[in-house]
Amino acid sequence: MTRPAKIGADAAIQQLAGWSAKDGRDAITKTYQFKDFNAAFGFMTRVALMADKLDHHPEWFNVYNRVEVLLATHDADGVTDLDLTLAKFMDEAAGGAQS
Q: Which pairs count as long-range contacts for 59-66, CB under 8 Å and 24+ apart, including other chains?
Protein backbone atom coordinates (compact mmCIF):
# COMPACT_ATOMS: atom_id res chain seq x y z
CA MET A 1 0.00 0.00 0.00
CA THR A 2 1.37 3.40 -1.01
CA ARG A 3 1.31 5.92 1.79
CA PRO A 4 0.24 9.53 1.18
CA ALA A 5 2.81 12.28 0.97
CA LYS A 6 3.72 14.27 4.06
CA ILE A 7 1.73 17.51 4.40
CA GLY A 8 2.99 18.61 7.81
CA ALA A 9 1.29 19.47 11.08
CA ASP A 10 0.92 23.18 10.33
CA ALA A 11 -1.05 22.49 7.14
CA ALA A 12 -3.19 19.91 8.91
CA ILE A 13 -4.24 22.07 11.86
CA GLN A 14 -5.43 24.76 9.44
CA GLN A 15 -8.14 22.27 8.41
CA LEU A 16 -9.06 21.01 11.90
CA ALA A 17 -10.77 22.59 14.90
CA GLY A 18 -9.15 22.16 18.29
CA TRP A 19 -6.06 20.30 17.11
CA SER A 20 -2.53 21.59 17.64
CA ALA A 21 0.96 20.79 16.43
CA LYS A 22 3.09 18.69 18.79
CA ASP A 23 6.29 20.43 19.92
CA GLY A 24 9.44 18.75 18.63
CA ARG A 25 7.64 16.39 16.27
CA ASP A 26 5.68 16.60 13.02
CA ALA A 27 2.43 15.38 14.60
CA ILE A 28 -0.96 16.71 15.64
CA THR A 29 -2.60 16.33 19.02
CA LYS A 30 -5.95 16.80 20.72
CA THR A 31 -7.50 15.92 24.08
CA TYR A 32 -11.14 14.88 24.29
CA GLN A 33 -13.13 14.97 27.52
CA PHE A 34 -16.27 12.83 27.79
CA LYS A 35 -19.10 12.49 30.30
CA ASP A 36 -17.63 9.31 31.79
CA PHE A 37 -15.41 6.29 31.13
CA ASN A 38 -18.11 4.48 29.15
CA ALA A 39 -18.40 7.37 26.69
CA ALA A 40 -14.61 7.66 26.36
CA PHE A 41 -14.20 3.93 25.80
CA GLY A 42 -17.06 3.89 23.28
CA PHE A 43 -15.29 6.66 21.35
CA MET A 44 -12.04 4.71 21.38
CA THR A 45 -13.82 1.61 20.11
CA ARG A 46 -15.41 3.50 17.18
CA VAL A 47 -12.06 5.04 16.32
CA ALA A 48 -10.27 1.68 16.59
CA LEU A 49 -12.61 0.16 14.02
CA MET A 50 -12.01 3.03 11.57
CA ALA A 51 -8.26 3.03 12.24
CA ASP A 52 -8.13 -0.64 11.38
CA LYS A 53 -9.99 -0.01 8.10
CA LEU A 54 -7.53 2.76 7.25
CA ASP A 55 -4.55 0.68 8.44
CA HIS A 56 -3.56 3.81 10.34
CA HIS A 57 -3.46 3.68 14.12
CA PRO A 58 -3.34 6.55 16.63
CA GLU A 59 -1.09 7.00 19.60
CA TRP A 60 -3.43 7.63 22.50
CA PHE A 61 -3.79 7.63 26.24
CA ASN A 62 -6.98 7.22 28.28
CA VAL A 63 -7.73 8.00 31.91
CA TYR A 64 -11.36 7.75 32.99
CA ASN A 65 -13.22 10.28 30.80
CA ARG A 66 -10.22 11.81 29.01
CA VAL A 67 -8.61 10.60 25.78
CA GLU A 68 -5.38 12.23 24.59
CA VAL A 69 -4.59 11.61 20.92
CA LEU A 70 -1.45 12.08 18.84
CA LEU A 71 -1.48 11.45 15.09
CA ALA A 72 1.42 11.10 12.66
CA THR A 73 2.15 8.72 9.81
CA HIS A 74 5.26 6.80 10.83
CA ASP A 75 6.05 5.71 7.25
CA ALA A 76 6.16 9.37 6.16
CA ASP A 77 7.82 10.61 9.38
CA GLY A 78 5.10 13.23 9.78
CA VAL A 79 1.52 14.26 9.17
CA THR A 80 -0.26 13.09 6.00
CA ASP A 81 -3.80 13.05 4.64
CA LEU A 82 -4.30 9.79 6.56
CA ASP A 83 -3.96 11.78 9.77
CA LEU A 84 -6.45 14.37 8.52
CA THR A 85 -8.94 11.64 7.64
CA LEU A 86 -8.63 9.98 11.04
CA ALA A 87 -8.72 13.32 12.91
CA LYS A 88 -11.93 14.35 11.13
CA PHE A 89 -13.48 10.96 11.90
CA MET A 90 -12.47 11.34 15.57
CA ASP A 91 -14.10 14.75 15.77
CA GLU A 92 -17.33 13.33 14.33
CA ALA A 93 -17.20 10.25 16.57
CA ALA A 94 -16.62 12.44 19.65
CA GLY A 95 -19.95 14.19 19.10
CA GLY A 96 -20.39 16.78 21.82
CA ALA A 97 -17.26 15.90 23.81
CA GLN A 98 -15.27 18.86 25.02
CA SER A 99 -11.81 19.34 23.57
A: 64/36, 64/37, 64/40, 65/33, 65/34, 65/35, 65/36, 65/37, 65/39, 65/40, 66/31, 66/32, 66/33, 66/34, 66/40
- Band the pLDDT of 3: cuts 50, 70, 90: low
- Residues 24, 25, 26, 28, CA torsion sign: negative
State the Cα–Cα distance between residues 82 and 20, nearest whole angstrom: 16
Strands (E) located in 5-99:
20-21, 28-33, 59-63, 66-71
Q: How many angstroms from the chain centroid is the CA of residue 73?
A: 11
Query: If pLDDT is split at 50, 70 and 90, which confidence band does 1 have?
Result: low
pTM: 0.91
**All residues at 6 or more sequence positions from 55 whose CB lies less than 8 Å from its CB, including other chains:** 1
